[in-house]
Each structure stands twice: as C-alpha cells, then as structure tokens.
Write a structure and sequence with these properties.
The chain is mainly α and 81 residues long. The chain is 77% helix and 0% strand.
Length: 81
C-alpha cells in the first residue's frame, strides 16, 4: 500500500512538472511570486490586475487537463477506511 501511494504521488508530481513547463521560465517565476504575495488570500493581497495575471498564467498551464490526468493516476486507489 505504501509503494502504491509513493508511485501515485510521483506520477502526479511528474504530471505537474509537465504542465508547469507549458509556461515560460519568467512566467513560472511570476506565478510563484504572485502566489507568495497572495499568502493564500488573493482578493485581499493582490490587485485586480495581479489576480487577472495569475488567472491567465494558471489557465496557460491547462489545469483541467492536469486535474483529469491526476485523477486518472489516483482513481481506484484504495483510501483509508
């Protein structure tokens, strides 16, 4: 069971890397900066323009395809009972 979890996490991490590589290096840095600046509260800590920029960058990383891919790696994975 432990190794199944390790494998699932590794697969999702590699998938995340592939999606982040859809962004240019400067875009990844900018996204990381915006996430850090937001401190988990983008409405409070980011301007409207910064929120729009963050959304644009996230959309470029194809979150829907990432979510479907991640789900396909962990579906059927037995959780704790």
């Amino acid at each position: 069971m432990f190794w199944i979890r390790v494998l699932a996490i590794a697969q999702v991490a590699l998938l995340a890397r592939r999606h982040l590589q859809l962004l240019e290096s400067d875009e990844r840095k900018r996204l990381a900066g915006l996430v850090a600046k937001s401190k988990g509260r983008p409405r409070k800590n980011l301007s409207a323009n910064e929120r729009e920029e963050m959304l644009r960058l996230v959309k470029k990383a194809e979150p829907g395809r990432f979510g479907r891919g991640a789900f396909s790696h962990v579906r059927g994975f037995p959780g704790k009972k």
